[in-house]
Write a structure and sequence with these properties.
This protein is an alpha+beta fold and 126 residues long. The chain has one domain. Helix content is 22%, strand content 34%. It has two helices and six strands; from the N terminus they run H-E-E-H-E-E-E-E. It has a six-stranded antiparallel sheet, with helices on both faces. A hairpin with a 2-residue loop joins strand 5 and strand 6. The N and C termini lie close together (11 Å). Residues 4-12 have low confidence and may be disordered.
Length: 126
């Protein structure tokens, strides 16, 4: 059930990010400050641009870095923050992982875009 919900959340998220697959500039091109709870997780955002951040979702653009290296860095940060990897359904160069902590779940998605990667983290509603 979690995997089905994770796929649904990721598909809905991708539908709202059609700029990833086009030549148009991103809709969220300006940097915004990182907000809680993301500020407490020591995420590897140095040199990256946070393009969206609220209590449930954060989106981070990493120029010049590809997904596999980012997956390791974000995984290390999430583990240090008390999260445990629950499922990894990554395929085709797209990272899709579900993490759990106490009574929360978190979706991590990383997609390569040209010579950059877009990282999305979302706290799931269960």
């Amino acid at each position: 059930m979690r995997r089905v919900l994770l796929v649904a959340v990721l598909l809905l998220g991708a539908a709202g990010c059609d700029w990833i697959f086009s030549d148009d500039p991103p809709r969220f091109s300006d940097a915004v400050p990182l907000t809680p709870p993301w500020t407490t997780m020591a995420l590897p955002v140095a040199g990256a641009r946070v393009t969206f951040s609220d209590a449930e979702t954060v989106s981070i653009h990493h120029a010049g870095v590809q997904g596999a290296a980012l997956a390791d860095s974000y995984g290390t940060a999430l583990q240090a923050a008390g999260w445990t990897l629950d499922a990894d359904t990554s395929a085709g160069g797209i990272v899709n992982q579900t993490w759990t902590s106490a009574d929360q779940s978190l979706a991590l998605s990383i997609q390569a875009v040209d010579d950059a990667s877009v990282v999305s983290l979302s706290i799931l509603p269960f």
